């Protein structure tokens, strides 16, 4: 349930930082650092342990440890409760205490490693894929990046463009799904077409096999246009990105 689990540092790095901290506090201190593969670790099996340091918010976890120890025939640990350090610089959406969750949130928007160089890709513009479901905030982020100077490509808008009469997929879609998907003015009725493919994987694949290659071609044209305009960054806003 941790916030931004993808940004949690690997165990080896965290253990190295902990060793550095312990040596800094007291070089003569003897310690073992053990990775936890479950919520309890050695706390419920090690008979040599005598004390468990908890905070106000982890006291219940300490009590659960003691319950397990009693079940395992081991004596209870003394629970020594410490106060949490408050973070004077925390923002409104961060925890009041000094927290690794807050630190991970502050990493958002920074490059954790330099972009991988691919000789097959042109150096400019640098293309960023922006994806997520309905209501996830794609439009707001795209607008923000556009204000910063990025060239925006709206895949949804291109998706509509492929269906219009004279559009690159119009004739193929009508041939595949019949004239009954057309409005009186000759435009494709997206609702009728949607009803034909909804819940039918075979028909849906037939449609995407027609539409997606045309959309990909239009996206590449837009990227070339961004390059021609001298744009350094191009943002592709697409709900179904990899396909």
Automatic annotation (TrEMBL):
* GO MF: ATP binding; dephospho-CoA kinase activity
- Name recorded for this polypeptide: COASY synthase
One Pfam family in the UniProt entry = CoaE
**Matching InterPro entries:** Depp_CoAkinase, P-loop_NTPase, Rossmann-like_a/b/a_fold
SUPFAM superfamilies linked to this entry: P-loop containing nucleoside triphosphate hydrolases (SSF52540)
Q: Which domain of life is it from?
A: Eukaryota
Q: Which organism is it from?
A: Nyctiprogne leucopyga
CDD domains, per the entry: DPCK
**GO biological process terms held by the UniProt record:** coenzyme A biosynthetic process
| UniProt KW keywords | ATP-binding, Nucleotide-binding
């Amino acid at each position: 349930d941790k916030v931004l689990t993808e940004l949690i540092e690997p165990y080896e790095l965290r253990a190295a930082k902990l060793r550095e901290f312990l040596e800094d506090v007291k070089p003569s201190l003897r310690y073992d650092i053990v990775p936890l593969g479950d919520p309890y670790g050695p706390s419920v099996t090690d008979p040599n342990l005598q004390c468990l340091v908890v905070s106000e918010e982890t006291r219940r976890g300490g009590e659960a440890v003691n319950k397990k120890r009693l079940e395992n025939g081991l004596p209870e640990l003394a629970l020594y409760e410490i106060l949490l350090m408050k973070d004077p610089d925390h923002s409104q959406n961060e925890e009041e205490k000094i927290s690794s969750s807050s630190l991970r949130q502050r990493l958002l928007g920074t490059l954790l490693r330099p972009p991988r160089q691919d000789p097959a890709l042109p150096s400019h513009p640098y293309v960023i894929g922006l994806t997520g479901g309905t209501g996830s905030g794609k439009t707001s982020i795209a607008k923000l990046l556009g204000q910063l100077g990025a060239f925006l490509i709206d895949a949804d808008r291109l998706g509509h463009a492929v269906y219009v009469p004279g559009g690159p997929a119009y004739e193929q879609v009508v041939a595949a799904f019949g004239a009954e998907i057309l409005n009186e003015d000759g435009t494709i009725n997206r609702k009728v077409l949607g009803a034909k493919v909804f819940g039918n994987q075979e028909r849906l694949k037939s449609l995407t096999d027609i539409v997606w290659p045309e959309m990909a071609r239009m996206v590449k044209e837009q990227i070339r246009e961004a390059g021609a305009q001298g744009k350094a960054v191009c943002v592709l806003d697409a709900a179904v990105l990899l396909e």
